[in-house]
Every structure is written in structure tokens, then in C-alpha cells.
Amino acid sequence: MNETTDIVKQFFGVVARGQTYLNIIYLLLAFPLGTAYFVFLVTGLLLGLSLPFWVGIPILLLMLAAWWGLVLFERQLAIWLLHVDIPTISRDTASGQSVWIQLKAHLSNPLTWKGLVYLFARFPLGIISLVVAIPLIALTGGLVFAPLTYTNPESQMYIFSWQIDTLNEAMICSIVGIGVGLISMHIMNGLAFVSGRFTSLMLGGLQGTTDSSLTRGDEIRE
User: How far is CA 158 from the centre of its chain?
Assistant: First the structure.
């Protein structure tokens, strides 16, 4: 009996947890951020590789610094919004050395390239987040607010060939919409959980800073 009660509380309690809405914000940000990263990185890297050496190399160095900054931003964004637990940042062993030695250490660090892969991966992941989140939010909103729109022919909902044009039908839709909304929140929490785990896997243990206050967060709780 207690187990059943806990399951019921877990299912309906999703609407009262602030983490749910932070997860939704993270998913909605994924597409615009992923698109911006993709366009910026492709444009910058292609310019750096295609232009003459004395122009291309400075551009590539700027891109290297830029994508590292974006990686650090993404890491912090996951900590802020998802409260994901990311492995501790390691100390930069090349700190205090010449610029050339630090550059070689940065280029030889696998996490530099994992970060680049992660930024490119944010584009398809952003598309997935958009395809999942937007329809679920739109469907939930349309059903829940059907009693406010059923009198307007231009705003009436259609479920297959069923036109919602009476108050009773609209109220049924609204009740169904509450259930759809609860299920949708659990689905989006699950997607955010997977995104957080992927971020932790790809961006954990970054080299270059020792601020431990930026490395830890609470686990995502659906």
C-alpha cells in the first residue's frame, strides 16, 4: 500500500517540483544554443582551414579559445539548470609554463576534443529536444484550455475527425489534458536526465581551473 502511495505521489508530484520546470527550460534552450554553436563552429573552422596560413592559424587559435569558453558555459549551464553531478575539474599541469607549452598541453588533452564533439552534438540533441518538448507542451496546452477556445471556430481543437465544439467535450479534453501534461513532464524530465548524464560524461574533469564550487550539483530528480 505504501509503495502504491509513493508511486502515486511521484507521478502527481512532478508538477510541484521546481526541477521539472528547470528541465523544461534546459530542453527549450537546447535547439537555439545547438544551432548557434553549429553555425559558429562550422563557419570559424572552415575559414581557419581555408584561408592562407598567416590568416588561418590566428582564426583557428581564436576558435580554440572560443569553443573552450562555450564548453565551460555548457558545463555551468548543466549545473545551474539540471543540477547534474559533474566530476571534479582537474588542475592544469601546464599552468605557469610558456604559452607554447600550455597550447601543446591543451591540444593534447582529450577533453579539448571531447568538448568540441559535445558542442557539435548539441545541434542534433537540440532538434530532438525541440521535437519532443514543443509538441508535448502544445498538446497539453490545447487540451487543458479547450474550455476557453471551443466557442471560436478558428481555435477549436480537432482530435482526428472529432471537433471539440461543446462545453462537455471541452471539459473532457481539459481533464485528459491534465493527464497528458503530467505524462509529458515525466517524459521531458527523462530526456533532461539523459542530457545531464551525457554532459557529465563528455565534460567531466575539464582541465584549466580549480574552482570546485562549479563542479558539483545535485542529481536530477524526476
Answer: 31
